[in-house]
TrEMBL record:
Record field: transmembrane: none
Highest taxon of the lineage: Eukaryota
Designated name of the protein: Xaa-Pro dipeptidyl-peptidase C-terminal domain-containing protein
NCBIfam families: CocE_NonD
Classification lineage: Eukaryota, Metazoa, Spiralia, Gnathifera, Rotifera
Length: 585
């Protein structure tokens, strides 16, 4: 449907005349030219401009906000969309955000000089096109009056393209298919991840899979720690303090970039001078429908099922109209929206809460401790989660890099799906609470603290948190397909520190923010394993550079400890909650 609609736009049938749509090539400050499409009505009135900078292309096949062009010109705006540098029809080399700030600055300066512009610009976007707005805002172009950075990437290494290990499937798919970059193609030579698993080294997997070299894929692998390559796009407090304009951000509890969206919102509130002018919406949405308040951006209809979760009617918001109200305030001097700064939907109880959450709250740290009597391997074990501190014990499983847990065998595991089809594997440790008697809400950061040892120098730990309902469905919670940490990053992402085999260590897996109520009759379930391939690359356990490791792989024996074997630490889940107590179980 979207393709037909955009073809009509290009053929200028029904919606636009030839004067309403045209393309220009705009010269940047270094001489490179970016391809820019302008959509506007026939009026000679100077109007405010909404700008999107995209690496996904400006054609009818692209995933952008250009389908909104008619809506914006009907409401007194001009819509402008540009191919980012090195993508689509734009010149230069694509640099993964590093040049977007300056190019955005130059584009806004150009827009402000055009005869159809009144000099006021707001930016529109989500995912990559939401994130690059932050880099533009930091440059403080005087004609940029507001931004709409939804579903935004977080810090490098902590989020894409690594996500604390290496997000293999995303890296290949985004560079090789989704982004409109040189050498990408929908036609791949080897599409079976089982064949990928046998290929060495990871650095040349791009050519094995796609039959072409993907320079950006290799560039990512060449920089496995925070270094000068990543520092160019690593936003710090002094950067956020330069953002002196309002923002409106949408994300969802099932959006893989929720972490980044909340991070940027929190730091804009903390460090920017207009800290009361930043707004955040968090709904039961996924990555694609979050910017539209849970509605499908093509059909405009509510997306009622996400994974195995049914979404209630009260969860959906008029995202586009809310964005218009925000722009009307920033770009047309109309009244400021009377919203609380954060509006967040709690799944389970299915209700909205409003306030300044995540930056400030009155919640407490609550813990559920991992323990077992005879062993927690698989769903057949007796692993337990409860509020009582455990006596000393441990659980062990084997991880074989050549037979990893596969993320591509059944459902879309990026979404809240029933995970039971995994839980009979013996390379999963499963810990389950007793039946919930009194409902309790988790609202804020969730962290898994593990005390562990392994017989190898480097390995992965992967975790899932689930709500087990009355039908014994184990519905996965959280914003990502999985939460993981490659142990070489346990002391930070600016260095790689290998382990002494069989020595006991601690690590923390950040499961990011959640907003969910565990209802009476349900249970809390945690699963711990060491792989989720090909979402994350299979760790060969050698400790070698992952890009060039030729193997062979090493099987590892992973041991999780509880009951303070090391410096008073024990394995546990850390929740933010006000009402989790002994009367809950």
């Amino acid at each position: 449907m979207i393709s037909i609609f955009l073809i009509l736009l290009h053929n200028c049938i029904g919606f636009f005349s030839l004067d309403d749509f045209h393309t220009e090539f705009v010269q940047m400050s270094d001489g490179k030219k970016l391809a820019v499409d302008i959509y506007r009505s026939l009026t000679n009135e100077k109007l405010p401009v909404i700008l999107e900078m995209t690496p996904y292309g400006r054609t009818s096949e692209s995933t952008t906000f250009r389908n909104e062009a008619r809506y914006w010109y009907q409401n007194g705006y001009i819509f402008v969309i540009a191919d980012t540098r090195g993508s689509g029809d734009s010149e230069g080399d694509f640099e993964f955000f590093a040049r977007d700030g300056q190019d955005g600055f130059d584009l806004i300066e150009w827009v402000a000089r055009e005869p159809w512009s009144n000099g006021k610009v707001g930016m529109r976007g989500s995912s990559y096109t939401g994130t690059n707005q932050l880099y533009v805002a930091v440059k403080k172009p005087k004609n940029l009056f507001c931004i709409n950075p939804s579903a935004t990437f977080g810090r490098p290494l902590e989020n894409l393209p690594f996500n604390k290990a290496f997000y293999l499937n995303w890296a290949l798919g985004w560079i090789g298919k989704s982004a409109n970059l040189p050498k990408n193609s929908l036609d791949w030579k080897n599409t079976d991840p089982s064949q990928w698993l046998e290929h060495r080294p990871l650095y040349t997997l791009d050519e094995f899979v796609t039959d072409r070299i993907l320079p950006l894929y290799r560039k990512f692998l060449e920089h496995p720690t925070i270094d000068s390559f990543w520092e160019k796009i690593y936003l710090k407090p002094e950067n956020y303090s330069q953002i002196e304009i309002p923002s409106l951000s949408f994300t969802g509890w099932f959006d893989g970039t929720m972490y980044g969206t909340l991070l940027h919102f929190e730091d804009m509130v903390r460090y920017s001078v207009r800290n009361n002018d930043h707004f955040l919406i968090v709904g039961p949405y996924e990555h694609g429908n979050a910017p539209d308040g849970g509605l499908d951006f093509i059909t405009g209809k509510p997306k009622k099922n996400i994974g195995d979760l049914f979404i209630e009617d009260n969860a959906f918001l008029p995202g586009l109209n809310m964005t218009k109200e925000f722009y009307d305030w920033c770009l047309k001097d109309r009244p400021k929206p009377q919203w609380k700064q954060v509006k967040a939907y709690i799944t389970g109880t299915n209700e909205w809460r409003e306030g300044l959450f995540f930056v400030k709250d009155n919640l407490e740290d609550k813990y559920l401790y991992l323990k077992s009597k005879y062993g927690a391997a698989s769903k057949m074990g007796d692993g337990v989660l409860d509020l009582d501190y455990p006596t000393y014990g441990s659980d062990t499983y084997e991880y074989n890099p050549d037979e990893p847990v596969r993320s591509d065998l059944s459902k879309n595991v990026l979404l809240p799906v029933d995970m039971n089809f995994y839980l009979n594997r013996t390379d999963f440790l499963i810990y389950t609470s007793s039946v919930v008697k009194k409902a309790f809400t988790v609202f804020g950061k969730v962290k898994l603290e593990l005390t562990f040892s392994s017989n190898v120098r480097d390995t992965d730990f992967v975790a899932f948190l689930m709500d087990v309902d009355e039908n014994d469905r184990s519905i996965k919670l959280g914003s990502m397909g999985t939460f993981q940490l490659r142990t070489r990053y346990r002391y930070g992402y600016d260095k790689e520190v290998l382990m002494e085999p069989n020595k006991i260590y601690n690590l923390t897996i950040d499961m990011y923010e959640m907003g969910h109520t565990f209802l009476p009759g349900h249970k809390v379930r945690l699963a711990v394993t060491s792989s989720f391939y090909p979402i994350i690359s299979a760790n060969l356990n050698t400790g070698n550079n992952i890009a060039f490791d030729m193997g062979p792989s090493i099987k590892s024996n992973q041991t999780i400890y509880y009951g303070s074997p090391l410096n008073g630490f024990t394995s546990r889940i850390n929740f933010k909650s006000k009402d989790l107590g002994y009367d809950c179980f």
